[in-house]
Amino acid sequence: MSALQELADLLFPNVTETPDDLEQRYPARQLPEGARVVRIAPSPTGYLHLGVLFTATVNFLTAQASKGVFFFRLEDTDKKREVDGGAADILAGLRQYGLVIDEGYEAPGKETGSYGPYRQSDRAPLYHVYAKSLLLQGLAYPCFCTAEELDAVRTGQEVKKQRTGYYGEYASCRALTPEQAIEKIKAGQPYVLRLRSPGDESRRVKFDDVIKGTIEMPENDQDIVLLKSDGIPTYHFAHAVDDHLMRTTHVIRGDEWIASVPIHLQLFRVLGVKPPKYAHVSPIMKEDNGGKRKLSKRKDPEAAVHFYAEQGYPADSVQEYLLTIANSDYEEWRRCNADKPRSAFPFNLKKMSVSGALFDLNKLNDVSKNVIAGMDADTVLEAVLAWAKEQNPAFYEQLTADLAFARGIFAIDRGGPKPRKDLSRWSEVPEYTAYFFNRPTEYPWPEQLATEDIRAILEAYPAVYDPAQDKQAWFDTIKALCPSLGFCPEIKEYKKDPGSYKGHAGDVSTVIRVAVTGRRNTPDLCGIMALLGNDEIAARLAAAAKAL
Fold first, then answer.
1. Each residue of 398-429: pLDDT tens digit?
2. Domains along the chain?
3. How far is CA 106 from CA 78, 94, 102, 369, 482, in A?
């Protein structure tokens, strides 16, 4: 037995398989031509970030548009930073926003698909197969350098103003013979497994990024760590093994990983497999003091996906907005295809922003108003109840005390050709609907009307109000009341000769609106009054007159 074989068996005594065996176990997928296999592969180190949701959305749309596969891989090898419940939170967030995986990790002990395990901490035997193969080929070696020794090397490089890292003459363990390495291992010295990089920093590596175009960078010559001292792979090595065995065709991820592409391409090459195509998504930006910066987990509450649930943005609203920043032509498509599902949109990675889309909360609110305006009363009620149960229990109790009344609130001005667009999120609903549950205490009367004229309207109107009237008949009644009060029934006529009248029919209806709701701007007043009931309307009109 050669010393190299002895070293490989010493490091990996339980590895009996070869890369060829794994090729048989994880064969090429049988998919339609052009189908893209993509993934979302987060680490469970915190809450679901908007940037992760955005990248997941881009991956999901890519798979959907190509009739491909969207899978979930949990990259949980960094146990020190892992947050309890982090994986469940991320998966729940993806499901909440309609990003249903085709295969992958779903929960502890639960996976779907034939290319798993989909949790990296369960894949150590697979990494070790490739690690042993690289070692036998002379493309990997054990490194026994201590942290103190590595720090000393770095310090010396900095003093000499040289590029830092473990490469060339500074890769001291590169020169160890297999016999020397075996001796150290048997002596109990801890080690990591490093790549014996075949790269040269003076050479260039070129690749075509699907989003950013052709990128050229120096070749990697660093002897990066493949396996840490506990046998767990680094991100770089796991990425190459996993994406090959899972047959990923496109790696779509944040552009902070562009600097790692030379390493990853080199790893695919030494593994002897075809690399996937890369598409690097620019970060979501935010305006700040006249400039732009990356949306920050620490500075911006809207960076956390929990923010949107707490505020009560419908999932559809967030997804619609993310598509407007993913592809600039989505808004035009949506205007022409109002009734079509998002899945019908021809999403294209090449239409994504190269520099980073700007997050605009006001734009999200506008998009959300359109989404909510298209919902029917039952959908709105169900969504508001779900939000209130979690975020505003007192309001939930108020609504559930009379569900028919609550539904009636949301049915007003809904379902017509021009629905109102008052609401952008469910957290606005308690204040928006407050006058249905509480009589006004303040009255913003029209400034141009005299107090005695307001009183005259409030005293005359109860005698003519008919709760059975529809919207047109209701307003016709107001116009019929106008002449006796000195108001003009028609607004156009009033504008021709405003000096001859105290106001017009619109002013009269405003006085009634303020008396009933305490507001000048509300949905259909006829519908509001019908829902409140005749007795309540009479009481409110009387209370308003008394308050004058």
1. 999 999 999 999 999 998 788 889 999 999 99
2. 124-281 (3.40.50.620), 377-429 (no CATH), 451-547 (1.10.10.350)
3. 19, 11, 11, 33, 66
